[in-house]
């Protein structure tokens, strides 16, 4: 398909990384050997086709005719092999890769945390190829060069840009959802049908039945903001994603009171000791893996903790293989060793943690200043002033406690101690209710850890006692130690306990708040550097109906009705108390409408849904209209009602960031969008215009929002969409590039207050730009000459941690935590019979050959695998079932059975069935997918608000705190397809 000319003034990055070989390329026009020329020469396509024919005819064999090759049209005998001859241009096939008309800078909008800058080469109006840009500026010469960044997926994104499977026109479903029957409609028809439906819903007061799902703003914030902005103006619902994907580590908000904060990957090189724990860096962090590998040159010891002998384990100095799901027990055993052998950092524990705080033995609650008359607290909220014992045995208030702070984050206070608290203490305190026995958190923790002695840990984990104890000692004694924490630990039901146990290791050893230390959780991109600009662009009203997608799905897919009574009661209590929201909201008559409308863009909700069977059978029929905005027909698009064609990553303006590095760089359009496709910003802008047109024609009056003090005015919704709400300028945000500039201008990371420095979009086009500072939602600043490392605000600057205690908080005295015995980190086995009573554990880790479902259908990458979904089995498990490598098998449980190919995988543990995730439904012969076997369930401790009345520590906020999805703790069995036992 031809494209329009794709020159973009001011947005090319120069001729090439090699300056276009001294500018000796041919002039723009038909290149040598171009198929369009009429001189009878052989085109690249015809030549390659001829080679294929020649192979089939047996050219070069004794049976082939001497002149059979010349049956291809346009080929002539060669008499002089050195001279010029008519089809010599085939030699230029590789040279032509260095011949282009223009080059633009872009990247890829995928949930990989890579954020890699690429140069995109265009020839004859077509994207010809991509190449890593390799011009990230260095900020610390002692660290490895950050260039280049990229992976094999990004190196073949051109296949998508030019692919036949690109969606080029608006499509409307004419068959059943998932049947694949469509008709092509015009943009006006598509937008009118959607707008009519949306206006109907808003007029009926069902605006909160409209929702938008899109993940990861950092990977393309303008595209994220496009639909979010319209949904926000409609009064609709914005879905969370970080918890939904089971990427959110709930232990971090529980213990540290923050959304995930990590060091950038360059900081790995500063470590003396790294444990890669469930993070398969060489597979899932390919652009950053060099820092892990090269740290060995700096003397870093690298330990891998994986159930299988993974692609990262082979590059570590030692590999530990705990039984599947036993990581928490192993971490607690290591902590017990550190405590028992007194290898902990006592000063850090006293100042930075809740270990010296006193706990009542009668209630299990913290002892508060309000309960002890002799303390005579002057704090505004003495009920949230925690108490310690000083070295003389006197009760002292813990500075920085919530009771003296103004909200969760208050840097006007300090946690600096002017006394020496007792770490290990037990005493009796006279309270207003009488004498009460109290103990420090440290004393409680030591009792918990004592249950994780070497024999117990070995029995649970199968890791050698001497081995894990030695690793614990080495970690504690290293100058700078770090844990790289991954999805392999986070996909479990008790992931919050696992997080807290691993965090405990870096806390005990004081490995926080400086370069080369910490616990870095790299799973998904949880937040964005340019936060304020993105937030106000995405949610201009400042009022957001955010919803935890896991709970929303659980509720509307009917799973709550089939949940065990105790868990169901807690879920309903959380909803009733307003700790966790569900939309649509309950009406005055106590009824709750069903959701009716869902927009999905930049994501594949239907394919990624845990409880996939329930989502299809119970949730999806409730939705009257599902609109998918996509450049390809993925599973969500296939099960949608209207599909709108969006621009590819090389056809739009946007920005890209990640917490793996501290740079910002752009998307720029190398070519015009293919066919009738438009950018996300253009699509939602034009939908806003159509909604305004329909509402005006109908005379729809503004509607008062039931929850927020605002009106929903459909007659001005387009005007509101393109208006700059910060300055009031009308029409200022009509175009994508203007939205990019808005984000950069309104974010302190790129336009700091009290500074003349500013990063503009043009700056990012010229070269990736290192951010100028870190905003208030990060926990350290960006310093010249050093890699970003978190937690300095607390460890070095002594500001209160944003927890109830103002410290790293390992003891949670919420009623539900106490009831469930989880006030401190502990190990628990997962729920029983999740999926049924079957002998094998089923898990779905991230794989090498795709980023979620993107590239799962790429022909080049499928050729590097087996070209179809595969189940990995240990040889002994396979032999017991009569299964050989390459057999077609069925993996099954009470929810579904899935047919796919077996692969024998000696590196795995026995009793494990593994399918690398994100295969599309249409890639399975039985229209199932990897999530068909995965039930959906939630843990009550992830539904709480703490404090219960105010929630300054734990409160629902999208992608900060909410129930995570669970991808492991699933039981299955496997059999050969067509066997007698079916």
UniProtKB/TrEMBL annotation:
UniProt xrefs under Pfam families: Molybdopterin, Molydop_binding
Family: Belongs to the prokaryotic molybdopterin-containing oxidoreductase family.
Enzyme nomenclature, EC number: 1.7.5.1
Catalyzed reactions per annotation: nitrate + a quinol = a quinone + nitrite + H2O
Names of required cofactors: Mo-bis(molybdopterin guanine dinucleotide); [4Fe-4S] cluster
Cellular compartment(s): Cell membrane
Residue stretches making up the 4Fe-4S Mo/W bis-MGD-type domain: 101-165
Record GO terms (molecular function): 4 iron, 4 sulfur cluster binding; metal ion binding; molybdopterin cofactor binding; nitrate reductase (quinone) activity
Protein name per Swiss-Prot or TrEMBL: nitrate reductase (quinone)
Main subcellular localisation: membrane
Comp. bias intervals (Basic and acidic residues): 1-22
Cellular component terms (Gene Ontology): plasma membrane
Region (Disordered): 1-41
Key words, A-Z: 4Fe-4S, Cell membrane, Iron, Iron-sulfur, Membrane, Metal-binding, Molybdenum, Oxidoreductase, Signal
Cross-referenced SMART domains: Molybdop_Fe4S4 (SM00926)
Topology within the bilayer: Peripheral membrane protein
Keyword Transferase: no
